[in-house]
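quick one before i forget lol
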Amino acid sequence: MTTLSGNSQQLKQFTLEDLNFGGKNYRAMSPRTLRLWWQGNTLVNSDTLAQPATYPQVFAREHNIYVQSSVGSQPVRVTADGCRQIVYGEAVHRNEFGIETGIFPSPDKTAFAFYRMDQSMVTDYPQVNTFTRIASCEPDAYPMAGMKSHKVTVGVYDIAAGTTVWLDLGDVTDRYFTNITWSPDGKAIYLFELNRDQTDTSLDVYSAETGKKLRTLYTEHSDKYVEPLHPVSFLPWDSDKFLLWSDRDGFRHLYLMDTRGRMLKQVTKGPFVVRDLVGFCPKTRSVIIATNELNPLQSNLFSVKLSDCRRTLLDNGIGLHSGKLSADGTMLLDTYSAPDVPRAYDIINTVSRKRTEHFRSPDPWVGYAVPAYRTGTLKAADGVTDLYYRMVLPPDFDASKRYPAVVYVYGGPHAHLVDASWHWASRSWETYMAQKGYVVFVLDSRGSEHRGRDFEQATFRNLGVCEMEDQMCGVAFLKSLSYIDSSRLGVHGWSFGGFMAISLMTTYPDVFKVGVAGGPVIDWKWYEVMYGERYMDTPEQNPDGYARTSLLAKAGSLKGRLQIIIGMNDPTVVPQHALQFLDACIKSGTQPDFFVYPGEGHNMRGHASVHLHERITRYFEDYLK
């Protein structure tokens, strides 16, 4: 017998034959054991779930990079001048363009590529630590739109030789480098470059041995912006071919290219987006992907044969699915949720397409006063585009009564609030509010994700304008319902949603009685370079757009009760936004309320988060109900 254990706690015993998932005994595994067993895109085939770390280990600490060669050995620092201004081995470009890390190991782990970010030329934002005996300054390097940005270079470190080669990138001023990956043979580095205006991108190949640029394989241009978010993925059975992501035809799809730069074929095509590339099945020469082609609110798993690009649905066709593949690509762990399914796991043979239901969670809310969760569509302000909404109704809902309603809003890029997961992706706070007698309404306006390039780029150079128009279509829908008290409408949002909440309250001051805006952007000239300039260009290039979307001039229009909440040390939407809006309100004679969380960043954590949500709720209880 083989004992499977993790964290020194025995979980269950299985025969060695069970490890290949060829028999039926995997049905006896708990979902937790199954998740632990199926680690990191591979099936564990060992006596323990907790696998020993593979050495050498490479990590960043205090802005420098270290290599630990073996268990118990002393880590060796491989960079010398790391500091707040010179940062090694960490995510750069403020985590835009899909960047999540700053260290990229070679296929055989004998070398690694890494980022070096010089931000000595970037203006500091003077964050203050009030927890010291005398408050101290702890500045963040924060490149605001139109101002100097940091400079990034890429190095390749040979662990055995202890040497670094720098990619020959030339003058890196106002250039972005992202989606770094290695060639399968470990001899080349592939990366995407963007110009600062983010209108042009190129896929370039560099020698990992000399740092010299070998060739440019692909270029793409947009009059608005391009946004590479994924590295290329090489075919396991053909190291001369890879998959590239692009929304060049209007939707995010996969394209097959070769290492000479030839575009061989478009692998996926249609009015839908590829949401994930799960992996490959070499046996069938297929790629396993997740798309929303069945429904914009869903994510479903498909197998796509690269020979003819035929897609085959692997999952049950409902809900929101994500997958992890076995090492050989023939077995798929399908984790999914649906509006009436909290969580479920299926095991799918990607070759035979046989699907076995492993576990389906029972409803954990049986016996509780549960709201009704509804969804539907309405037309955007353009009169053509379908928008999806979620509505949460009180548990004891009575259509003959009239209820106060709160619009929960985000509206910005790279996010959506409504999908076909449990309770239509409703948040616990919405349930809490519904239990207190509110109707909560959520609408994904134009500009949100997973609806195609034109849908997302509708907000270009005018953030907040068409989003507000769409939200007001949602308000008109709410007002048409006999059970909504239109004299008691509230709005709440955080970050981009905070910007939207204040925008709505000051643009339509007679509509919303109460609002709560968390971490709000007030003027895009105070937001960071990469995100801000992608959607708004610079303040010098787009002065009318910046003036039109700034909330400073709207401070005098405020009529309802507005509470602004921020983290005092927010490094994302810096406190200057909220403080300058307060100053504008003082000068115009309007009276917002203000609350700050000392030491907190853009999102509250732990007990502060509990306190925050109770404060938000209390504000609506005090002034809307």
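fyi Confidence is low (pLDDT under 50) at residues 1-29, 31-51.
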